[in-house]
Specification:
Subcellular location (chain B): Cytoplasm
Largest sheet of chain B: 6 strands, mixed
Keywords (chain B): Chemotaxis, Cytoplasm
InterPro entries (chain B): CheW, CheW-like_dom_sf, CheW-lke_dom
Oligomer: heterodimer
Pfam families (chain B): CheW (PF01584)
Protein name (chain B): Chemotaxis protein CheW
Number of strands of chain B: 11
Strand order of the largest sheet of chain B: 8-1-2-11-10-9
CATH architecture of the largest domain in chain A: 2-Layer Sandwich
Number of domains of chain A: 5
CATH topology of chain B: OB fold (Dihydrolipoamide Acetyltransferase, E2P)
Helix content of chain A: 40-55%
CATH superfamily of the largest domain in chain A: Histidine kinase-like ATPase, C-terminal domain
Distance between the termini of chain B: 14 Å
Strand order of the largest sheet of chain A: 14-18-19-17-16-15
Largest sheet of chain A: 6 strands, mixed
Number of helices of chain B: 4
Order of helices and strands of chain B: HEEEEEHEEEEHEEH
Chain lengths: ~675, ~160
């Protein structure tokens, strides 16, 4: 039996549990009174303990066991939730992480010290001072409160009904209808439906819900009213009261089938007295459900999606194979048109459709929510803020946005860098903020949003911002540019100075940022992915970094051009248009060729020269120019011929021999099997 | 030089080395067969502008893009013309796949570790010693053994 496969699964699952633990612990730090967090943590730690014991990783199971003991004492209010406790638990999590990491290498991680600390903590000796806003309520009290929150089901008198549905007023008619329904052996259920935030057609969804509900029983009341629902005059949730004979599970199941529904919470509000026991049962189940539902809402990380774990390598291979398939499809298309084989048309059209669908499916299967990396940041920012003695409010938006796995893997480090910059350089110290009249807690916002064909990630802070003047000075001081050069720069261009290699905006280099991997590395990485970085800043008010990223990386639309006898692909994203010009219209400004086009001066570059191409067709009067965009300005590239648009599959030129080479995004294989290079406009010119 | 001596002693430990022997100019070279993935005829090679001169270009090897290197250029030797005999030796150097253009591939031989000696000066004058592991003596033939790892990473010119 191959253990390595199990190890992989163990690691993947452990990492999930650790993430859960981290999230909950952060939550607990914010809300020390909310013991639901400790409960969630307890469950995760318990699972981890079981898993590791099964796999024979005794150190992990020992440590989780001790953690469980401590958390159990917290649950029983024998130990207070204090800063010291939180720190110990964080340390445990870090150690666990290291232990899980070490599963592969078989390294030993010493936990004796931590065990001693844990034992001390259980004896009530926190290493750090206690804070007094600790937990006063025991878990029993909490449970009682939860129970109180839930409408007392199974009531029959109208007086009780009134108290039960506090938010919903019932008319006499409706109460009458409910009473009749109950007398007929029905159950009256109040169903709360919460739509997904991304839901576009809310009215359509709500109508679907109502149709489904009416199939299961008679609707008594709907809040907001049906008319209001149709007009989308509601936020995300609505409640429908109806009489039914269906069980809760069936109801939830039926409604869940509708897409874009986030939550369905059924509550029995009236029932025939004959089923007293069952009603108790339902109540218990409901309580459980309600509790877990609220837990889900809070941690937002316990997702039970029906899914299969697939090694990313498999997906990569699949993607490659799809690439091959598409190349072969193009080749077949070419052959068919060469042979003028009309009989093939229909089959080829089918093949076209199928390959497109497969491609889409494979792409989709590689998409993962950006939360997978975003979820690491609250902890990182917390630690960072703590070590800097700053208070940071981290706001994360759009974590459900999906990106290709490859893109996601690559943007982790750049984002870490940007967030560190924001906390380290952006946000001022507490005293400074007080003096400036800003809120003491600095605001860092990390937001992802879906654009038409890309994803935008913004990292924003409300710190001191960047002074173009200061950046100019630094560039001169570091010898990157001369005084004359920087003075010529617009303020916006001056901000872009931070992307120059060797530039670090920090006045004091700390051990956190300013470690040599500067903003230029961030920019290079993002551009390598086919994305872009933009920066804007208002001195005194903060900065925003905007990363524009492609949804997927592997396939791009390109304009195919020839230069001499070579074919190159220019990504369509860079191409503005193509124009034909006359050689006699070319003018020279400061020794550089330009042409007036639509009233604008367009600099011209000959791809022959850039690509060191051997032969150029001499005495050519009519030239073809591809206008491309680089950093906001347009440049004309003179090419020999246009071959048209084509989808190309990017294969990386990942090779040590080419590591210092710039100008090419990769290569692609054309229909005839030959290799063409894909130009990377950003680094080529 | 330390590097050369090291690999030289390494080789002595092994009883037999299986080598792929190819010709480049007037010399005979050998690479460990474990590093050779396959040997192919010259396909169309796409030039990479701005790449180092010893990078001949890229080829399509069954859907994979492989960088092809001109060994003679890498060694600072005269570039030889391509003939029908010319081949590309596709090697796997610590995970990086590279094609080496050679004049012809002659045979696979077994060489005793004890037959491997330090590279004589007459050869290191022509080819950077860092690129070599030593020479193999077989009958009256002198086989130059390549250190592919260094050929891939060393930036020093010959």
């Amino acid at each position: 039996m191959d253990m390595s496969e199990y190890k992989e699964i163990f690691r993947a699952e452990s990492e999930e549990h650790l993430q859960q633990l981290n999230d909950s612990l952060l939550g607990l730090e914010q809300n020390p009174n909310d013991l639901e967090y400790i409960n969630t943590m307890f469950r995760s730690a318990h699972t981890l303990k079981g898993m590791s014991a099964t796999m024979g990783f005794n150190t992990i199971s020992e440590l989780t066991h001790e953690m469980e003991n401590l958390m159990d004492m917290v649950r029983k209010s024998q130990v207070e939730v204090s800063n010291g406790l939180i720190d110990i638990l964080f340390e445990c999590l870090d150690t666990l992480e290291a232990l899980v990491e070490a599963v592969d290498s078989g390294e030993e991680v010493d936990i004796a010290h931590l065990q001693a600390t844990l034992t001390q903590a259980m004896e009530g000796n926190m290493p750090v001072e206690h804070i007094k806003n600790s937990v006063a309520t025991s878990i029993d009290v909490i449970q009682n409160e939860i129970a109180k929150d839930i409408p007392d089901e199974g009531t029959k008198t109208q007086a009780e009904l009134d108290t039960v549905i506090d938010n919903i007023e019932l008319s006499d008619n409706e109460k009458q209808a409910m009473q009749e329904a109950v007398n007929d052996g029905n159950r009256v259920v109040s169903l709360k439906v919460i739509l997904d935030e991304s839901c576009v057609l809310k009215s359509a969804r709500s109508t679907l819900v109502l149709i489904n509900v009416s199939k299961m029983g008679d609707i008594i009341k709907c809040t907001p009213t049906e008319a209001e629902l149709e007009d989308e005059k509601f936020d995300l949730d609505f409640t429908v009261i109806f009489a039914t004979k269906s069980a809760d599970d069936d109801i939830v199941g039926a409604i869940r089938k509708i897409s874009e529904i986030k939550e369905v919470v059924p509550t029995t509000i009236a029932e025939n007295s004959g089923v007293e026991e069952k009603q108790q049962e339902t109540k218990a189940v409901d309580t459980e459900e309600k509790k877990s539902a609220s837990a889900v809402k809070r941690s937002d990380a316990v997702k039970s999606i029906q899914s299969v774990r697939v090694n990313i390598e498999r997906l990569d291979n699949l993607m490659n194979l799809v690439g091959e398939l598409i190349i072969n499809k193009i080749r077949l298309n070419q052959l068919a048109s060469d042979l003028n084989a009309k009989d093939l048309d229909e089959s080829l059209a089918n093949l076209d459709r199928l390959t497109n669908e497969i491609q889409t499916e494979v792409m989709e299967s590689r998409m993962v929510p950006i939360d997978q990396i975003f979820s690491r940041f609250p902890r990182m920012v917390r630690d960072l803020a703590k070590s800097e003695g700053k208070q940071i409010n981290l706001i994360i938006e759009g974590k459900e946005i999906e990106l290709d796995r490859t893109v996601l893997d690559e943007i982790g480090d750049p984002l870490v860098h940007l967030l560190r910059n924001a906390v380290d350089h952006g946000i001022e110290s507490e005293e400074e903020r007080k003096q400036l009249g800003k809120p003491v807690a600095g605001l860092v916002r990390l937001a992802a949003s879906r654009q038409r064909n890309s994803v935008l990630i913004e990292v924003e802070d409300d710190g001191k911002g960047m002074e173009p003047g200061h950046l100019r000075d630094v560039a001169v001081k570091k010898g990157l540019l001369t005084r004359e050069e920087v003075d010529k720069l617009s303020d916006n261009d001056a901000l872009n100075l931070i992307f120059m290699p060797g530039f670090s905006g920090a006045k004091v280099v700390t051990d956190i940022s300013g470690r040599g991997v500067g903003m230029d590395a961030v920019k290079t990485k993002i551009e390598a992915l086919g994305g872009s970085v933009k920066i804007s800043s208002v001195p005194g008010q903060g900065s925003i970094m905007k990363l524009q990223l492609p949804l997927t990386v592997a396939i791009i639309q390109s304009l195919m051009v020839t230069v001499s006898d070579e074919t190159y692909a220019i990504p369509l994203g860079n191409v503005i248009r193509d124009v034909g010009i006359k050689a006699s219209d070319i003018k020279t400004i400061e020794g550089k060729e330009v042409i007036m086009l639509r009233g604008e001066v367009l600099p011209l570059l000959r791809l022959h020269d850039i690509l060191e191409s051997s032969t150029e067709k001499e005495d050519k009067q009519n030239l073809i120019v591809v206008v491309v965009e680089k950093m906001g300005s347009n440049i004309g590239l003179v090419v020999d011929d246009l071959l048209g648009q084509q989808e190309v599959i990017i294969k990386t030129l990942d090779n040590k021999l080419l590591k210092n080479m710039k100008g090419f995004a990769g290569a692609t294989i054309l229909g005839d099997g030959s290799v063409s290079l894909i130009l990377d406009i950003a680094t080529l010119i | 030089m330390a590097n050369v001596t090291e690999s030289y002693t390494d080789n002595i430990d092994e009883d037999l080395n299986q080598l792929v022997i190819f010709n480049l100019g007037v010399e005979e070279f050998g690479v460990n067969i474990m590093q050779v993935q396959e040997i192919i005829r010259m396909p169309d090679i796409t030039r990479i502008p701005r790449a180092p001169e010893y990078v001949k270009g890229v080829i399509n090897l069954r859907g994979k893009i492989i960088v092809v290197m001109d060994l003679d250029r890498r060694f600072g030797m005269q570039e030889t013309e391509m003939t029908d005999e010319s081949r590309i030796v596709v090697v796997d150097i610590e995970g990086t796949i590279v094609g080496l253009v050679v004049d012809s591939v002659s045979e696979v031989i077994r060489l005793k570790g004890s037959n491997i000696e330090q590279t004589p000066e007459i050869i290191t004058q022509k080819i950077n010693a860092e690129y070599l592991k030593g020479v193999g003596k077989m009958d009256d033939r002198l086989l130059i053994l390549l250190n592919l790892e260094n050929i891939l990473t060393e930036t020093a010119a010959a």
